[in-house]
């Protein structure tokens, strides 16, 4: 069959990029280990950003990296100022948070960079909750996230310097990819209806680890963007996050056997190499390795930093909260699919010959 021949051709044309795997593993592990060593705030986010940067064929330019860090800083500083002022007025505070969530998703439906969308989601869901906990924590987050992003960029540039690409990255696949056809208003509402109720309930009930909010927002963004590709993509994304939770739990159990820092660094490096090897394997499931890596680093880093006597309980809580977040997103999308299904962009009306004749007259 022609389809089988095409598959054979694609398989034979695949070239395993060992340098890309080394860049991803060493760059991400290096940022995570340094963060654990120096214990700077929200250090695990630096490893997550490094993972995003290192998946690309080239490193961000100096100008693009500086623009990204400054954008993150001013966005978070604005969010801190806004929610600090609105903190005494709870109804207005929560309305502003929902509007901020909608703004973040509007960036997605308008075709902005996924990284910018994730930054906006972090501001919309994390900053209000941190300001609610403590103004000092909120201010630390406003400075710590850009710092972690800058650290990730430095690690990315260093990794690309140590393991440069073998040649120019092909751009044809990007250029020929057809534009997505969806109703932007409908998709914006769908993502908001999944995320906003969870954010409100989390805020009202003080629902636990703030990183759970980020999981819900990013999953909503990912699942909405993959709706046209069928339920298999949704199941794969949910499965990847569950695998990430399991990987984090296994890594943590190994680390507590031997609490020496060198042993922890070895486990993290091994984890990153295993997942990066999966990422460059060329298997159909390879793209999921990036999601597994991010989820495992968030859970592991959020549990280990800062270290404390309740780390066992914290890890269990993180896993339970992750499972609850995944269940919420899945059930919410099933409900939203029935009440507000995805639809294509309404066709633009073309003027009829009579209209053109009338206009010409």
TrEMBL record:
The keyword Transmembrane helix applies. It comes from the Bacteria. Keywords: Membrane, Transmembrane, Transmembrane helix. The chain crosses the membrane at residues 24-54, 66-86, 140-160, 198-224, 236-255, 261-280, 287-307, 319-340. This is DUF2955 domain-containing protein.
């Amino acid at each position: 069959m022609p389809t089988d021949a095409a598959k054979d051709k694609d398989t034979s044309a695949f070239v395993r990029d060992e340098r890309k795997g080394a860049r991803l593993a060493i760059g991400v592990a290096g940022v995570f280990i340094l963060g654990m060593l120096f214990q700077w705030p929200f250090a695990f986010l630096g490893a997550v950003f490094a993972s995003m940067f290192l998946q690309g064929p080239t490193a961000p330019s100096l100008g693009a990296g500086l623009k990204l860090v400054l954008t993150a800083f001013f966005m978070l500083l604005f969010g801190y100022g806004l929610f600090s002022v609105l903190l005494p007025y709870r109804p207005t505070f929560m309305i502003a948070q929902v509007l901020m969530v909608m703004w973040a998703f509007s960036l997605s439906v308008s075709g902005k960079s996924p990284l910018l969308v994730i930054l906006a989601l972090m501001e919309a869901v994390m900053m209000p909750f941190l300001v609610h906990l403590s103004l000092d924590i909120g201010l630390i987050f406003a400075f710590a996230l850009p710092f972690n992003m800058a650290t990730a960029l430095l690690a990315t540039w260093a990794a690309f310097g140590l393991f440069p690409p073998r040649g120019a990255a092909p751009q044809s696949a990007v250029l020929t990819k057809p534009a997505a056809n969806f109703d932007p208003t409908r998709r914006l509402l769908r993502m908001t209806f999944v995320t906003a109720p969870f954010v409100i309930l989390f805020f009202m009930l003080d629902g636990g680890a703030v990183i759970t909010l980020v999981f819900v927002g990013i999953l909503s963004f990912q699942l909405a963007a993959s709706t046209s590709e069928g339920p298999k993509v949704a199941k794969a994304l949910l499965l990847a996050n569950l695998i990430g939770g399991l990987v984090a739990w296994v890594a943590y159990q190994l680390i507590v056997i031997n609490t020496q820092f060198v042993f922890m660094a070895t486990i993290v490096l091994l984890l990153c190499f295993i997942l990066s090897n999966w990422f460059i394997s060329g298997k159909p499931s390879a793209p999921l390795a990036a999601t597994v890596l991010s989820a495992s680093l968030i859970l592991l880093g959020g549990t280990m930093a800062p270290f404390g006597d309740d780390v066992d309980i914290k890890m269990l809580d993180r896993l339970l909260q992750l499972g609850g977040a995944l269940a919420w997103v899945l059930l919410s999308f099933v409900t939203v699919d029935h009440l507000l299904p995805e639809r294509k962009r309404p066709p633009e009306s073309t003027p009829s010959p009579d209209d053109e004749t009338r206009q010409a007259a």
